[in-house]
Amino acid sequence: MISASDLPATVALSDSREEYGSAEALPLLVVESERCRAVLALQGAQLLSFVPRGDADWLWLSPKVTFTPGAAIRGGIPLCLPWFGVNRRQPALPKHGWLRQRDWTLLAAEQRDNGDCLLRLGTSATAAEQRDFPWVYDVEVSFRLGAELHCELTVYNRSREVMPLSLAMHSYFAADLERAAVTGLAAGRFLDNTEGLAAGQLEGPQTFAGEIDRVFEGVGERQQLETGSGALTVAGQGCDTVIIWNPGAALASEIADIGEHYRDYVCLERGMAFADELGLAPGACHRAQLHIFR
Question: Would the pTM of this model clear 0.85, i.e. be above it?
Answer without folding.
Answer: yes
